[in-house]
């Protein structure tokens, strides 16, 4: 499947198609997107400053990107090595580990950014 001199609009269409396929076929990306929407709504609710909001969007992008790359790596490994193989397992597990690291960093950043507004909201600060 070699495509040459693809128009820019076709490149964007293919990229969007990849995102849609991942969203339709991968449970974890749907979870990440759902949680991201909830976090963005919470950021609006607590009126986080623009810098904090930008940081939230950055880590959301990091997690979604990691999940898309994980999906791509898993698809390639399944194509090349349909049967179980130790190296295929390493590739898949490390790609999933990258998503876990990105999500963990996002959670820590979220806790740091939301701690004070949530404590104030509960009247504990």
Please render the helix and strand layout as text.
Layout: H1 8-25, H2 27-45, H3 50-80, H4 86-122
Write a structural description.
This protein has 125 residues and is mainly alpha-helical. It has a single domain (8-122), classed as Helix Hairpins, CATH 1.10.287.3610. The chain contains 4 helices and no strands. It has helices at residues 8-25, 27-45, 50-80, 86-122. α2 runs antiparallel to α3 and α3 packs antiparallel against α4.
Number of domains: 1
Strand residues, percent: under 5%
Helix-strand topology string: HHHH
Name of the CATH architecture: Orthogonal Bundle
Largest β-sheet summary: none
- Measured between the Cα atoms of the first and last residue, the distance is 59 Å
Transmembrane segments: 29-47, 53-73, 94-115
Binding site for a divalent metal cation: 74
GO molecular function: ATP binding; kinase activity; metal ion binding
Cofactor: Mg(2+)
Short summary:
It is found in: Cell membrane. The protein is mainly α.
């Amino acid at each position: 499947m070699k495509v040459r001199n693809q128009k820019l609009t076709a490149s964007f269409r293919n990229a969007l198609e990849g995102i849609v396929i991942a969203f339709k076929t991968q449970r974890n990306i749907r979870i990440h997107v759902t949680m991201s929407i909830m976090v963005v709504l919470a950021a609006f609710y607590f009126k986080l400053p623009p810098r904090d909001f930008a940081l939230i969007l950055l880590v959301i992008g990091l997690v979604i990107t990691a999940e898309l790359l994980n999906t791509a790596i898993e698809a390639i490994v399944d194509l090349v090595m349909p049967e179980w193989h130790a190296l295929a397992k390493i590739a898949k597990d490390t790609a999933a580990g990258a998503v876990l690291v990105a999500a963990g960093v996002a959670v820590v950043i979220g806790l740091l950014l939301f701690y004070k507004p949530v404590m104030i909201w509960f009247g504990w600060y």
